[in-house]
Amino acid sequence: MSLYQGIFKRDMQVAFKQKAELVQPLMFLLMVVTLFPLGVSPSPDTLQRIGPGVIWIAAILSSLMAMERLFRDDFQDGSLEQYMLSGMPLPAVSAVKVAAHWLVSFVPLLLLSPLLAMFLNLTVDMYIALVLTLLLGTPLLSLIGAIAVGLTVGLQKGGVLLALLLIPVFIPLLIFATSAVDSAALQLPYHAQLAIIAAMLLLAAAFAPFAIAYSLKVSQN
Amino acid sequence: MQFESFADFLNMGGYAFYVWLSFGVTFLAMGIIAIQSLSKHRALLKQVVVEKERKARIKKARQQQQDNT
Amino acid sequence: MWKWLHPYAKTERAYQLCLTLQPWFWVGALVCLSIGTVWGLAFAPQDYQQGDSFRIIYIHVPSAILSMGTYVAMAIAALVGMVWQWRTAYMSMIAMAPIGAVMTFIALFTGAAWGKPMWGAWWVWDARLTSELILLFLYMGVIALYGAFEDKQQAGKAAGVMALVGVVNIPIIHYSVEWWNTLHQGATISKFDNPSIAPEMLWPLLINLLGFAFFIGAVTTARLRNEIVLRELHRPWVQALATEKVSKQTSGSPNVNLKEGS
User: pLDDT digits over B39-59, tens only?
Assistant: First the structure.
């Protein structure tokens, strides 16, 4: 167990040393959200209507930028190979790494979310729903994203490819998450949407670590 | 036959453009991928032969060089 | 139980299988597609609501069904490759991807061309069209990932993982899009949902479905052959085969000499 703790601690330390890489996706998120009032309309009603979708789309796009970091350094400096040779089960190692990555890249996003909600004129009910969907949905982004990151980590030009691979896969999450927030706006219950996102998250949590481990092995060849 | 005349058939009850466009594009797309798949095979086989002959020539040239020295 | 399959893991056997199957597939595709298309276009009765524009159904529905079917077949091939470590399984997976993408494109295009007279717009965010569009993205992802790797062995494995991720997602995408659609538009678009289809209309549809399936089989086997030759360039059996084929094609023509001189 202490080995996994060590990996976790190391990942956190490395992440906090590269502050720019942590902050840049968040700045990107903020800027994308800023574009919508400018590009669509600054009227509060319109913003409220498109708000949930805008925040979620921006979150997905910025997560794609943050995702690349997940295995890249470990792949390049050979630590990944060390993990594979160490005899530790690779699915467990990758699960730990995904958890560390989620903490450093999505928890700041959650902290930023009140500001985004204010920008887009979301009501308190909508904001609560948004936070709940982000809490359930962003680990799903990390888990599924990590599979594709594992596959593209060895490629020179992985950035756009990663987005091409992942965006279609994230569509159901986007649909359910935004509809939960929309329901909250109408004072309707949104347990069903949350339950579906939670179900997808559990499914991903059960299978994704194995898929990540396999894809890392493929990349490592 | 559902149509009175050939002109009627071409007209497709007023939907000629959409119906013939769909069928045209469909068979065009299928034709392109079929021809591409088949012609690539021929090109590949030729490439294999050219490669092989090139290797044989290189080997022969080396042999001659050795014989000369 | 599956022992009879194992010899085809060898590229040479798989190549021979493609060679024997291919003519049958081409003939089957040609026959079924001509019968189904002519029957559907000229002899099937008119739809009482949509007139003759419904005849697009004879290519739209088969291509839509088979675009999904091909993706599932790709995922099965990827799984077989993973479980038994067959190179030929990955090769056939990647041989299927382009034709699957073409089928998806056909389904999208005919859907749009059908939608224009029916809905008054080329593109409507209808549930089926939307999930078909997402399917096209999934195909493109697999093809792009395969193309990005230099080492095609590795590329096959990577694309296989993505195909499997996609196939788990297809039902989720399908139902989520359908649900999203009813949420946003209500059940206004039900023109496609004919409760039952008359048998005179159904037969040409089934024949065309079979024809499209044969066509996919034919293109897949043709592309699998290409893939095998491409990966086994230096094997003696490929070289012997190529020499035989090329000499047969160009025998007696001066091209042979020209090539040797070049």
Answer: 988 888 888 888 888 888 998
